[in-house]
Structure formats: structure tokens, C-alpha cells
Amino acid sequence: MRKVLMLGGSTSQICAIKKAQEMGLYVVICDYLPDNPGQFVADEFHLVSTTDKEAVLALAKETGVDAVICYASDPAAPSAAYACEKLGFPTNPYDSVMVLSNKDTFRTFLKEHGFNTPLTFNYSDYESYINDAERFPYPVMVKPVDSSGSKGINKVYGRNELEFAYNDAMKYSRCKRIVVEQFIEKKGYQVSGDGFSVDGELKFRFFGNEFYAGGNIKEYVPLGETFPSVLDEGTQQRIHDELQRLLTELNMKTGAYNIEVILDRDDNIYILELGARNGGSLIPQITQYATGVDMVEYTIKAALGEDCSDIAMNPSSGFWSNYMVHSTKSGRLREVVIDDSLKENFVEYQTDYSQGDEVTAFENSGHALGTMVFKYSSFEEMFEKTQRLTELVRVELM
């Protein structure tokens, strides 16, 4: 029986563990959390951090696996590429994955290769950062270079907000580096979704429309996406072409990507993120519901070096959204209530929270209780109900 090592055992990664087992594989997982839920599904568990590339390599050798797989985890992507490269397994180049995994190196790469990119400043110490305060084209975005899920990201309107933004970004940066980026006023929705390349060619992509928190929740924290994209085919193809150019410049091979793109007021394309991994928040599941393309299975096949050339741009069917279930207050969970008017749209809910568990007021994706998927009858119903999801899905505390 062939073995695979999967990096991470969170609730969102259980689907990949189960898919690998359905494919007849023996699944070893590792995670730095001793109480991760994936260990109760996998065939074997090791308490090893997915961000420690040398430890991941050693574990892969020790367990004699045939592939190392990173599913829906930005921090684990470099470790997977590193171990695979050392072991001669199929992978995207480690150096390229490292470029994609850090916002400062990614922005530098984009600029050097002629892609649109915001004016960017890079820092590893507060003194240099604050000394440049008068140079920043406010408003600016202050971000950790290596976080995910909008952790530590703030929009800053003036000098008086810089200290908080710096400390918040540093708190979530593992390598203790941050970026300050010119704020780009986007046109319409931010483009979000997943893609898949085969031998460097972007063979599949499925774009959606990202929507954000409002009210009492921290600005620019995403709550979910709606699918399919509202963009016309010509614009989607322009984005596709820019992504393809980036994959070619990076010498990427076969694998999945999580994509974040915006168009500015003049329709210029800005690639914000290209993660060398599947999206979280049930994006691969919505992709399969809508197009029939099983991105989880293709990700596993790619890691094993199997033929993925049959993946294709299937037309989308139906109207879908995912939603990060959350509370605006901290406390103990009583229950999550779906309004009667939304029950007919409900598809699934992925969570590991139970009644009585501690809930943290929502400021980033790490505070979400889980992700729900909904299906709608039309664009109109999708957008009307999506705008009211914070009312229609209520988190009640004790």
C-alpha cells in the first residue's frame, strides 16, 4: 500500500485525509497541535510542526512515504516543497514556493517581472518603519509577510495608527517581517478562487467574488465568497493570462493554487496572492459542487506523480457561497441558528465547535467557528441573502 504524508490535521484538512484513504492510500499526518482532529481519521499521527521543513523531511524519510502533501495550508507549503525536492518527489520548485509564501518576496518578484504591484515598503524593525511614516501614501495596508486568513492585517489612514498596525502585524509574523503597501482602490469584488496547473499550464480555474465583514468587525476580514464570478469571460481570460505568465516565470509544474486578484478603477490586474495550495473555507468543495472537478483528488494525484492532464474547464452550474460562521462577542457557545428563510439554501457546515466551547470575537479567520456552504437559485437570490448572512446565521452565546 502506498503511503502519503499530509501536513496538518485541522478540521478543514480532514476531507483530504479521507479522500486519500478512499483512493487506497495509507495516510500519515503531522501537526504541532496534539489535539488536532485529523489524527482520529488518519492512519498514523506524529507530533511534528508542519512549518519545520527539516523535521518534515526527516519524518517523510522515517515513515517511507511516497508523497508529501500540503492541503489548504499556506505555512506548510514551503515544507512540502522542500521535502519533496530533497526526496525527488513531484513538486513545484521550493524556491518558487518560497517566493509565493512571503508577501515581501512576492511583491519584489512581481515588480521585477513587470506585473502590476502596489508601492511596497518592507520592514523587520519598528525604528525603520516609523522613520518612513511620512513617505507612506495613506491609506496603506500593513501586513505580516507570512500570515494567512487576514491575521494581523490593518488598513492605516494616518501616522497615529501605525504603532498598533505594526504590533498587530508582528504578532502574526513567524519570521518577524512586515510589509506596508499602497492601498489600491478595487473595482467591484475581489476575485477569489482556486486553480490547477499541469506541467506549468493553468488548465483549470474557478473564480468567485469575495465579500467582507462590516459593522463592528475589523475592516478587510473576509467572510466568504460567492460563485461563480460576476466578471465577463473576457476579463476572466485576462486574469487567467496574467496568472499563466506568473506560473511560467516561476517555473511551476503541476498542482493547486489559491488565487486572490483585484482590478483597479482602470481595469488593471493586481495579483494579491497566489498560494501554492488549495483554498480553505470549503472552496474546493464548492468547486466540485459547481463544476464537478474534484480538486482534492487532483492535488493528491499530482503529489503522487499521476497523470492530471484530463482536468478541464468545466462549465459552472448553480449559485453558491461559503460563509465563515462567527461571533462578534467572546463567550461560550450555546448554538448556531440558521434563519428559516435560509434553511432551503443550506448545503453543509464544517466545524469542530460544540455547545459550551469558548468562542472568540471575530477579528480573523482563526476566530471562525467553521464554514457553511449555501446554494441559491439565481445571482439575485445569492447576492441578496449573502448581504444578510450575519443576520440569517446567528451565533448565540450562553
Entry summary:
The protein is of the alpha+beta class.
Rg over alpha carbons: 20 Å
Shape: globular
Q: Cα distance, first to last residue?
A: 48 Å
Stretches where pLDDT is under 50 for at least 5 consecutive residues are none
Helix-strand makeup class:
alpha+beta
Helix content: 25-40%
The count of helical stretches stands at 13
The largest sheet has its strands arranged as: 13-12-9-10-11-14-18-16
- Average pLDDT number: 96
- Counted beta strands: 19
Largest sheet: 8 strands, antiparallel
Strand content: 25-35%
How does this model look, in words?
It is globular, with a radius of gyration of 20 Å. Strand 9 and strand 10 form a beta hairpin. The protein has helices at 14-22, 53-63, 77-87, 94-101, 103-112, 126-131, 162-171, 233-250, 283-291, 295-303, 340-343, 379-386, 389-392; strands at residues 3-7, 26-31, 44-47, 67-69, 120-123, 140-144, 154-156, 178-182, 190-198, 201-212, 222-227, 255-263, 269-275, 319-325, 331-338, 346-351, 358-359, 370-376, 393-397. The longest helix is centred in the middle third of the chain and has 18 residues, at 233-250. The mean pLDDT is 96. The strands form 4 sheets. It has an 8-stranded antiparallel beta sheet with strand order 13-12-9-10-11-14-18-16. It has a 4-stranded parallel beta sheet with strand order 3-2-1-4, with helices on both faces. Helix 3 runs antiparallel to helix 4 (94-101). With 398 residues, the protein is α+β, with helices and mostly antiparallel strands.
